Structures are given as C-alpha cells and as structure tokens.
Amino acid sequence: MEIQTVQTVAAIRPEQMAGRTVIVIDVLRASSTIVTAFNCGFASVIPVETSEQAYALRSSDTVLAGERHCKKIADFDYNNSPAAVRAGKHTGKHLVLTTTNGTRAIQKTKKAKHVLIGCFLNALACIEEALNKNCNITLYCAGTRGEFALEDGLAAGLMVHLAKKRAAAIHTCDVSEALEACYLQMAPQLPERLLTTTTGRRLVQHQYTEDILYCGQIDLLKIVPIVREKRILSSVSS
Ligand SMILES: O=C(O)[C@H](CS(=O)(=O)O)OP(=O)(O)O
Fold first, then answer.
1. Paired sense of beta strands 71-72 and 62-68, if any
2. pLDDT at position 237, please?
3. Which of 5, 47, 69, 195 could form a Cys-Cys staple with 139, CB 3.0–4.6 A?
4. Max CA-CA distance within the chain?
5. Residue 168: pLDDT band by 50, 70, 90 thresholds?
6. 88: pLDDT strictly greater than 90
C-alpha cells in the first residue's frame, strides 16, 4: 500500500484520485466543522459551491453554514465555524456547507474510490478507516486560496506517522516524508502553533481564535465523515 500527499487543490492529478482512498484535509476549518457537525447530531452534511445553491436547499430540516473571506454569509445560520456549530443541538438535521477551499476540494474528488474527511480532531480514526479500505491513499490538502496551508500539511504528516506505525511496509512519497518530519518537530507546540499559519493569522484577525485552538486538538473524536454521492455521512470507528 502507498500514501501520497497532495499540497493544494490545483496540484491534484487524476491518477492521485482514481481507484484510491482520498482524505480531504482542511483543518481551518471545513474538515473540522464537518467532523464536529456529526458530533453535534447532524445526520448529513451537504457541501455546495455557491451561496445560491445553499439558499435553494433551505428548509425546516436544514441549517446553512459557510463563509466568504472568513465572514459568515448573509442570512446563513452559522459561519464555517466548529465553535458555532457545536453551540447547538441539531439531531437529525442536515448541514448545508459552503466554504472557500474545503468544499471546493471535496467537489473535485468525484473520481476517487472512497472519499473521507480528515483533520486533527479525527486523525487516528480517519487514517485507520482509510487503511481498512485496502486501497492506496491520497492525503489531499485543501490549502488556502490556491496556496499550501501549513496546518493541512501538519495533519497530513500526523496521518503519515500513524499509518507507518500501523503498517510498517507502507510506501510514502517525499512530500509525505517531509510533512511527517515537520509534524514531529512541531507537535509539542500544537495547537498554539496554528495561530501563526497564514489561515490562522487571518482567522485570529476575525476573532476566531477559539476555532483554531479547538481545531488543533488531536484525536478528540472517532467520527469519520465519508462522501456518498452529493452528501457526507458519518461512520464512527470502534
Ligand atoms: O474560513 C475558513 O475557515 C476558510 C477561509 S480561508 O482559508 O481563510 O480563505 O475556509 P476553508 O474552506 O475552511 O479553508
């Protein structure tokens, strides 16, 4: 089995998708919001690209969340914010989510065999679920506004490290190796280190420090969101 890591949405090649298990990693904040949504009782998450698509899905069963330039979209219920989502109880509802990078990354995974959503919060559960699927794995970092995002790379590095502990014979690409080394060096400073990444600084400016510190917690949840057609459902790993 082999693990490749892709640093941005634009960098992914068709062969890094087809027949593989792809883990979409957007630590700040889409992946963390999705994992948290399931922990708060949502039955599914519906990722959409535009606010118009989200408005069209508004009903008594849906809650709309999303951001543009880090700010909540007008008339939406929530920002793309795990702290906001976990403030309420949403049993059985469906979260419609649109974000700058994360939901765009998810839309581009149609050719993958399996698509999982990962971040620090569910790193161990997510990589274990991926290994159990017995396909080659792509760690697909969403990045920020077309650029590599360090927090996504660190979460990928953690998953590489966990995968190698579980399956010593696993093959990895050089990017995966570099990010594992980077994660191991920075791990003692998490989650505070995330405050100084490009996205972290932007979110601090918009007063979302609470989100960043929450998103930097490792293995808080055993929830593994999985993309099925146009929805994301949850499996809870044992
Ligand atoms: O608000 C977020 O969490 C980010 C916005 S950005 O990266 O600062 O543009 O969106 P996301 O799609 O979750 O990366």
1. antiparallel
2. 56
3. 5
4. 51
5. confident
6. no
Query: For residue 80, what is the DSSP state?
Result: S
Task: Give nearest CA residue, ligand 1 atom 3.
Answer: 29
Of all protein residues, the one whose alpha carbon is nearest to atom 10 of ligand 1 is 100
pLDDT at 238 over 70: no
Measure Cα distances from 111 to 7, 172, 233 in Å.
18, 21, 18
Q: How confident is the model at residue 236 (pLDDT cuts 50, 70, 90)?
A: low
- Cα angle at 122 between 10 and 30, to 5 degrees? 40
Give the Cα separation of 71 and 98 in Å (integer). Answer: 12
Q: Is 80 in the pocket of ligand 1 (CB under 6 A)?
A: yes
Q: Is the pLDDT of residue 132 over 80?
A: yes
**Least confident piece of the model among 27-31, 76-80, 89-93:** 89-93
Q: Which domains does the chain carry?
A: 2-232 (3.90.1560.10)
ipTM (interface pTM): 0.90
Residue from 9, 80, 140, 215 to probe ligand 1 pocket by mutation (most atoms less than 8 Å from CB): 80
Ligand 1 neighbourhood includes 199 CB (under 6 angstroms): yes
Ligand 1 centroid–CA 59 distance in Å is 25
Q: Is 144 in the pocket of ligand 1 (CB under 6 A)?
A: yes
What average pLDDT does the segment 62-67 reach? 97
Q: Which of 147, 160, 114 is nearest to 10 (CA)?
A: 147
Ligand 1: centre distance to CA 8 (Å): 13
